[in-house]
Amino acid sequence: NSMSDRHPDHGRGGDLVSRACFLAGLVKFETTYDNKLQSPHRPVNVFRYIQDRWLEPDFVVDITEQMEGKVASIKAFSSQFYDPNSKEPTTPISGSDFFDFLYGRALQYGRIINTKYGEGFNVERSIGVTDITELL
Known about the structure:
This protein is of the alpha+beta class. 30% of the residues lie in helices and 12% in strands. Strand 1 (32-33) and strand 2 form a beta hairpin. 7% of the residues are buried. A three-stranded antiparallel sheet has the order 3-5-4. The chain has a two-stranded antiparallel sheet with strand order 1-2.
């Protein structure tokens, strides 16, 4: 259930996580941590964050309160993002308009759920709820 993205490693990384979640639930696949045998465990859901390409989200999370922290975290990786003094080749994330795109995408997903900023996710299987009134 690979997700498409501009950078091929993003989809492959998600595929590795998904496969690891499956394998971790196999009874005959023994794993240890700190020299102790672990019980099999498989997460109920695997959520995939939508990155560069537009994908219709299965659900959107309100990130209005976290948006500025998210941008600050991304800017901490300064070698990959916009630097007017950089002599490196320009990439889709190193251009001066990348942060405009980031805000625009968050606004677009936020609009879907009637909030300022949102972040879209896709799921590998349907999500179940026990109380429909808890859904926004």
